[in-house]
Amino acid sequence: MIHSLDLQSFILRARVLKLYRQALKIAQRAPVHVRGELKQTVRQEMEKNRDCNDKQKIRYLISEGLERVKGLDEMLDMQGH
Question: What 3-state DSSP class applies to 12?
Answer without folding.
Answer: helix
